[in-house]
Amino acid sequence: MNTLTFKQIDRTVLDTLEPPGRSYWMVVGLVLLGLLGGAACWVYQILTGIGVAGMNNPVHWGTYLINFVFWVGIAHSGTLISAILYLFRAGWRNPIARAAETMTVFAVCTAGLFPFIHLGRVWLVYYMLPFPNQRTLWPNFQSPLMFDVVAISTYLTVSSLFWYTGMLPDLAVIRDRAAGRRKRIFALLSLGWTGEHEQWRHYTRIYLFFAALATPLVISVHSVVSWDFALGVIPGWHTTIFAPYFVAGAIHSGLAMVLTLMIPLRKIFKYEQIITVGVLENVAKTIIFTGLIVAYAYATEFFIAWYSHNQVELEVFRWRALGDYRVGFWIMVSCNTLAPLLFFIKRIRTHIVWLFGISILVNIGMWFERFVIIITSVGHDFIPHAWGLYYPTLVEFGIMLGSFCLFFFLYLLFVKHLPSVSMTEMKETLEEDTAHEP
Amino acid sequence: MNRERHLMGLYSDERQAAAAVRSLAQSPFKVLRVHSPIPSHRLAEALQVKKSRVGLFTLIGGVIGFFAGFTLAIFTALRWHLIVGGKPVMALVPFVIVGFEFTILFAVFGNIIGFLFQTDLPRFDLPEHYDARCSGDHFGVLATCEDGQQDQLSRLLTRQGGQVSALDPGGI
Amino acid sequence: MTSANSPFFDAFRRPAGWGFSSLLAVGVVSFLAAAGGRHPHLAWQAYLINFLLWSGIAQGGLLFSALMHVVKARWSGRMAGIAESMAAFFPISFVLFLFLFVGRDHVFPWLHYDLHGKEAWLNVPFLLARDGLGLLILYGVGFVFLYHSLNLRVGMLAPVGKLRTTLHRRWSRAEMDPDAIRSRMTLWAMLYCLSFALVLSLIGYDLVMALDPHWISTLFGAYCFVKPIYIGLGGLIVLASVLYIRYGADTGLTADHFHDVGKLFFGFALVWADFFYAQFVVIWYGNIPEETSYVIARTMTAPWRGLAWTVLLVSFVGPFLILLNKKIKTLPRAMTVLCTAVIAGIWLEHLLLIGPALNHGATRLPLGILDLLITLGFLGMMALAVRFFLNLFPEVVHMPTRDMSP
Q: Fewer Cβ atoms within 10 Å of its own Cβ: the N or the C terminal residue of chain C?
């Protein structure tokens, strides 16, 4: 392995927290502009009405739902990496666990905005909360939208707590190396962590429980999101495969976003010895696996649509592949299932530019997958004279841009103020490696 | 009454620290605490730590959450007592989802509460006798001895290859 | 180093062989008697259930080894070796599949239905060809993986017996270094995993879902390949536990092995239940009659309702609650009982899926002594196959002194 030491790990990570230069603030400013632009679009929508978006009869769910599912999906692979791979004792997760878990928290935050954006009458959002009120209203917990409320808020809470707990030892490291105001802030944040054996005794146990609880949670959350569609009766939506299909697709898109984030991060922060090409290669291999699952799901849906000999089902799938939105469909298929196959070639999956490029393609493909699923089913269901098309408006594009900017804004702030690599887990990896030597 | 003296042995290697703990266990001196930058199996074994009981908090939280989720869903459904979408008023099949999510949520709350409870965190002042190097790349074994026995203790600690820092120069 | 005279080698030969052969005989006799009797469909029903169940255990067992290899797990070597022994059932499974067509009038009720155009897919020649080809591919790929894996595991050791000597000659002639063997293994393991998903989905659609030819569920295929992983792990735990109880530390197995495979078993209990619920909640909620009739018949109508609850309790709720405890995963006897119960539960689940389609309007469960006897026959076949393999490669169980694998 490489010749890292504890000191070097600390040094490399703590160096990233030094006051940033001008180029950093320029990028943050740019992203903030995009974010404010999106916010302005939203304010315009609140004042004018949801009609400024492109949704109408029959397609009443558009980019707001697409982006919602997209961002929730991205969140999932963060939990895969930090929780599921922890349970499987896959050491290659350690260098990227912190950054991935952060991606989860911010992606869920971004996703959580979209139900509000889509509400139209945002000021009535409290209708969705179960508390005794004089209207004698209670939410209907049989609704998939209420499942979403419960699942997404649980996911946000659990992910944030998991993220924060995982950071505690690292926050103590920063406290011990900082001075003045920063020392006081991190002394507060680290809750007085001193790495005593009594603290570690309990910490390792709860970390294991966090991982063990986050794993079924992550599977349930995207299953719940998929059931927003599958519990309806329209063709292309009402199908039992949605739950595992969406979970696999979510992990697929999230892993691609991990690559998209890690590759510039390791270059700028000089993490090459910590986030090695080997780690990125393992992410790429996992993308092959999730891509194959997604391919299986596409093939199964088409096969069963034919097998069912159901006229409506057959027509929806024919229209998806050959109808007005066929470009989106073929982007989806090629980017999600074909592009990752290139990772079978070792040269490609160890080449930074290819890794980055294919990760962008997969992200695009997964966005289009949600587009194809949502728009084509609703726009082309049972009654031909009710069929219709949908195009997003500028307001929607503005909000979408704003959401991407929000995510990157939060992420940029994070990487300069909190440790983007878990120093503690990296040291654990080092210790384990030396333990295996004779 | 003799005053207690505190000495901390700092080791850059986990195995040395574990060896020091073991030799201290057989000596008349007491190990107060061991600080480490990473969780260590070897140290845990050398210190013979018992298994943590936080899991109990997690389990209780989970059970509470399971019943809370179902209760919330059933209660709100029964308040209206309407048949919606052809589904029964008290529909356990979809309520499983609510129950499941609440189970996980409350189990995590139990996890956190148990952790804070058992470790006595948050603590907003650092304990005495803490060395900042222990969060970096050193393992710190904090031992106590009677006044006058510092040399003996110091020799024991350095024998395993560590540095020693006396932590109370003028008093306790 | 082993020799034909080592006491370990001998231990396999004697009483077990006669016991399993007699089980097989009992099964064959009862099957033939029932198939020729007044209710042949009951015999063929039991045949189909057992064919799917035991083939699934074998396929899932080999998948464990393939999967562990692909993800480069370091803990599982000894367990994987034992898991591979279940692949010995593959040739038997293939013959059983072909023989299934003798009873096609009983196991393919759609032969006499109006299929509204599905005849292009549901006709005996095409079904035999595609499923047979699928199984050939699956088993063939599995055997190639096994060939390379055994090369790595026992290839350097002194051969005994004709088959071993032939293999040993082939392995020595190829003279590949361990890394080359491992990368071959990775390729064939990945192909096996791929074939596993595709072929078992196909078999699930053709042999189980098609019994109700107008009912569909897109997740059914995946559901039908998750079950074999679940029971494959269960079978592995039973086999490993039995061997450990018999041979102790010689097997090279430790408490950690059992703990880890027990955790995997627990995980797949959840996956199986999740895949069941994912289908159930979608169909229940949509309430579309052409989908719900299947589910209502199996979970809400007597006599199948009780069976459905039994399956849920035995194969999910029970294992879930019991396996939350860490210690129990390391007790071989307890795990043997638990995993046997789970496999029995999945047997009942197969009956739950297949039974209503083959016994329309049944008022009592078509479950009786015949099913037990035929199941014992299949158990005998599986046990004989595994025994044959372990006799051929005793080093898989009895750790040779030079073997350093975990």
A: N
